[in-house]
Amino acid sequence: MIHFRGDEIVKELKSLGILVEIRKLSVGDFTWICRNSSNQELVLPYIIERKRLDDLAKSIKDGRFHEQKFRLKQCGIPNCIYLVENYKEHLSLPLQTLLQAATNTQIIDNFTVKFTAGYKESIIYLSHLSSLFNNIFSNKTLIGCDKCEVPNFSIQDDCISLITFKDFSKTSGKCRVFRVQEMFVRHLLQLRGLSVEKAMAIVNMYPTPRHLINAYQNGGDEKMLANLTSGTLQRPLGLAISKAVHQLYTNATLQ
């Protein structure tokens, strides 16, 4: 297991017999690596973002919540786990708002959301995952490849291709050069109520801000995006979001 900082949780995991290394992670708080027969460091297809409830509230208020989820979805690791620890003191948002945000993360963003009673239960959960992954992957043939080449896989496969740790670090860092589409998604995520899946649906239809602005200039109105669907349930974006995007990209002072 890889953890991004050395704190008490590392000591606790090591006391349970879990191998833990402290390394800088470009995204997420925990992931797992292995070495294949060629001595390549490969990232297992699971990554965890850990949040206490009070930190979740802060991340929603300052915009990190959507930005972090976007980066997790783009990092090349297919299974994202949002680990939420119970901590009800000094919450800057109502508890119901936080629970709804976690629910949206599971249903709309297709993350696995795990609630724990607190720090100790999180340690037990992490140790169980580590043991499970060791049992699953120790007898498989693992092949390293770049992020753009990782195919879909089944856990039943005997041979699995995984992203290298080097490529994971290089392509998911905050300081890398972003493509126009990625910057467009980040811009859209600043709008209230716009999830990663909804932003991606807009960008898939209109790859750049210029494409969207041109569509508005060619007759598109505030209802243009209302019926655009997103996510696994293919729900429409709705009129409120359509109006908000229309206002943002047709305001002459912002263009």
Automatic annotation (TrEMBL):
<keyword id="KW-0539">Nucleus</keyword>
<comment type="function">
    <text>Interacts with EME1 to form a DNA structure-specific endonuclease with substrate preference for branched DNA structures with a 5'-end at the branch nick. Typical substrates include 3'-flap structures, D-loops, replication forks and nicked Holliday junctions. May be required in mitosis for the processing of stalled or collapsed replication fork intermediates. May be required in meiosis for the repair of meiosis-specific double strand breaks subsequent to single-end invasion (SEI).</text>
</comment>
<dbReference type="GO" id="GO:0005634">
    <property type="term" value="C:nucleus"/>
</dbReference>
<dbReference type="GO" id="GO:0008821">
    <property type="term" value="F:crossover junction DNA endonuclease activity"/>
</dbReference>
<dbReference type="Pfam" id="PF21292">
    <property type="entry name" value="EME1-MUS81_C"/>
</dbReference>
<dbReference type="GO" id="GO:0046872">
    <property type="term" value="F:metal ion binding"/>
</dbReference>
<dbReference type="InterPro" id="IPR042530">
    <property type="entry name" value="EME1/EME2_C"/>
</dbReference>
<keyword id="KW-0234">DNA repair</keyword>
<dbReference type="InterPro" id="IPR033309">
    <property type="entry name" value="Mus81"/>
</dbReference>
<dbReference type="InterPro" id="IPR047416">
    <property type="entry name" value="XPF_nuclease_Mus81"/>
</dbReference>
<keyword id="KW-0378">Hydrolase</keyword>
<dbReference type="GO" id="GO:0048257">
    <property type="term" value="F:3'-flap endonuclease activity"/>
</dbReference>
<dbReference type="GO" id="GO:0000712">
    <property type="term" value="P:resolution of meiotic recombination intermediates"/>
</dbReference>
<keyword id="KW-0540">Nuclease</keyword>
<comment type="subunit">
    <text>Interacts with EME1.</text>
</comment>
<dbReference type="GO" id="GO:0048476">
    <property type="term" value="C:Holliday junction resolvase complex"/>
</dbReference>
<keyword id="KW-0227">DNA damage</keyword>
<keyword id="KW-0255">Endonuclease</keyword>
<keyword id="KW-0233">DNA recombination</keyword>
<comment type="similarity">
    <text>Belongs to the XPF family.</text>
</comment>
<keyword id="KW-0460">Magnesium</keyword>
<feature type="domain" description="ERCC4">
    <location>
        <begin position="1"/>
        <end position="88"/>
    </location>
</feature>
<dbReference type="GO" id="GO:0031573">
    <property type="term" value="P:mitotic intra-S DNA damage checkpoint signaling"/>
</dbReference>
<dbReference type="InterPro" id="IPR006166">
    <property type="entry name" value="ERCC4_domain"/>
</dbReference>
<dbReference type="Pfam" id="PF02732">
    <property type="entry name" value="ERCC4"/>
</dbReference>
<dbReference type="GO" id="GO:0000727">
    <property type="term" value="P:double-strand break repair via break-induced replication"/>
</dbReference>
<protein>
    <recommendedName>
        <fullName>Crossover junction endonuclease MUS81</fullName>
        <ecNumber>3.1.22.-</ecNumber>
    </recommendedName>
</protein>
<dbReference type="InterPro" id="IPR011335">
    <property type="entry name" value="Restrct_endonuc-II-like"/>
</dbReference>
<dbReference type="GO" id="GO:0006308">
    <property type="term" value="P:DNA catabolic process"/>
</dbReference>
<dbReference type="GO" id="GO:0003677">
    <property type="term" value="F:DNA binding"/>
</dbReference>
<keyword id="KW-0479">Metal-binding</keyword>
